[in-house]
Amino acid sequence: xxxxxxxxxxxxxxxxxxxxxxxxxxxxxxCSCGYASIVADGKQIAEFNTRLHFANVDxxxxxENPGWARKIVQPIEASERSKYPLSVPxxxxxxxxxxxxxxxxxxxxxxxxxADDPMLAALAVLHxxxxxxxxxxxxxxxIHPLVRWAVEFRLDAQSTHKAxx
Length: 165
Hints:
Layout: H1 3-12, E1 22-28, E2 34-40, E3 43-49, H2 50-55, E4 57-61, E5 69-73, H3 78-83, H4 94-106, H5 109-113, H6 118-125, H7 132-137, H8 145-163
Antiparallel strand pairs: 1-2, 2-3, 4-5
Helix pairs in contact: 1-4, 4-6, 6-8
C-alpha cells in the first residue's frame, strides 16, 4: 500500500473530535533515509528520523536465527528526554512509524492500545473505535510520553468537540 493511501486511511480512522486536527507525514530521500512526524493543530509534535535512529542502533547476531540480526537501540538518557518531552528524534525511525501506521489499520485498536510500540498506542488513542472512558483509564498508567500526549490531546479535543454546537 502506498504511503498516500495509508496516510489517508490512518487519518480517516481518527475520532471526529481530532480528525482534521492531527496529521501524519512521512518522507524519504533517494538514499531511503527520511523522517516522519505527527502534527497537531499545525505544530510538529514528534519527529521520527531514520538517519539519527540508525546511527544509534547496534546490531547483534541472532543466535536463534543464524544469518539474522537483532536491533538493539541505545537507551534514551533523562537529560536527552528533557530536551524532547514527547519523542527524542533518534528514538524511532520513519520505518518504525510506517509500520505502526500499517499495524493500526490491520489490528484491533483496543489491542493496539496495549502494544509495546508507543507510536502504535498513540495512534490507537486517537482512533474512533476507542471510547473516551477507555482513554481516561490510560491517564493513571505509566505510559510513554507520546502516548500521554495523545491521551491528553484526545480528552481535551473531546471536551471541546462536545461543547461546540
